[in-house]
Amino acid sequence: SKVTFDYSKAAPFIGAHEVDFMKKQVMDARELLVSKTGAGNDFLGWIDLPVDYDKEEFDRIKKAAAKIQSDSEVLLVIGIGGSYLGARAAIEFLRHSFYNSVSKEIRKTPEIYFVGNSISSTYIRHLIDVIGDRDFSINMISKSGTTTEPAIAFRVFKEMMEMKYGKKEAAGRIYATTDRAKGSLKGLATEEGYESFVVPDDVGGRFSVLTAVGLLPIAVSGADIDKLMEGAADGRKKALEAEYEDNDALKYAAVRNILHRKGKSVEILANYEPSVHYVSEWWKQLYGESEGKDQKGIFPASVDLTTDLHSMGQFIQDGSRIMFETVINVETSREEITINEEPVDLDGLNYLAGKSVDFVNKSAMNGTILAHTDGQVPNLMIDVPEVNEFYLGQLFYFFEFACGVSGYLLGVNPFNQPGVESYKKNMFALLGKPGYEAQREELLKRL
Ligand code: PA5
Hints:
Order of helices and strands: EHHHEHHEHEHEHEHHHEHEHEHEHHH
Strand order of the largest sheet: 1-10-9-7-8
Number of helices: 17
Distance between the termini: 57 Å
Structural class: alpha/beta
Largest sheet: 5 strands, mixed
Shape: globular
Bound molecules: 5-phosphoarabinonic acid
Strand content: 5-15%
């Protein structure tokens, strides 16, 4: 079994011939990608990453993870966007639902907190409270080495660490994941002697989960990064080698573009397992930042179900008909709970006695798919056979490859993010950063 894409439930909205008709366009987009001749072709290092990565560094990642596990009760992972979401997605998907709060006997590995993904002083102060006087390590992740959010958090926690351990021991507890040669984080790491890991030049943030960016925090959490890479390598083989007719990544790219051209401008990624929440957050960045440009793109949204059926369900069923829905279905639940019979059926649930909670969850899912389809929301499905590193690796690669093809189909450069700079310019001007004086005057007049 493998991660599979199934659009059979969208049959009322897409004729089989439509997917055939897309073949030439999809194959052309695929060719642009794999021949590395399209826009953004200097950011395609992720295509071969699962088979062509730095093995020596991979070993160092495992060693660093083992050291952190042995000398720290807490790991702080500092990063934002592509330097944040992949690790969080993997850890929340693979590990205990209450990873940080469950007992150490069950978790076995350090608590892991993510910071530097906002500019909230309250969040930082509260995290300081959580660390208390316990031993901790820091993984500071920034490809550019200059992003404001993580840089601010790093200043605070570096100071805390140096106060606690002294400069020398602190340096042994700080791990920097950044560019091979440039940026202020690289300079700092060299100056202070931090162990460094590399974000390859040709891998953009949102495609970097299978580099040290994702791998070090994932390894610290106790997840098996060898299996993750194996799954990604398997996903790569399928994406690169399967014919169009049997190629799930190509068909996902085709089908979402067919629906887009029919006026569906929003794709909602839905899940029925809370542990998938951050996979959706990672996916939103991947697709949103890759496709949302030149006033084009499908808006990537997400819901956690059945939770959000009680908040967003009304809109999906019955509001503006602007969306299609892609369900991530974890086929086999990790844990099983059976609903027991009660002598007096006060809550009226005895009709479920002997059934599993997951049976109820799957029934909710199937019922919802049909209801939303009846409500004119085309439903696609991505099946994940079970929760493990191998299938997560497949899933990451499936989404990345489909994203590259889909972006070329849309006619954009899927590998840049020029729009991310606008807020930064304004923020720097308002903060009084040297060099932004003229913009500052303009902006202050407008506020
Ligand atoms: O995908 C991207 O390029 C962004 O989301 C970046 O990952 C994010 O801005 C963080 O950048 P950096 O790793 O340079 O700090």
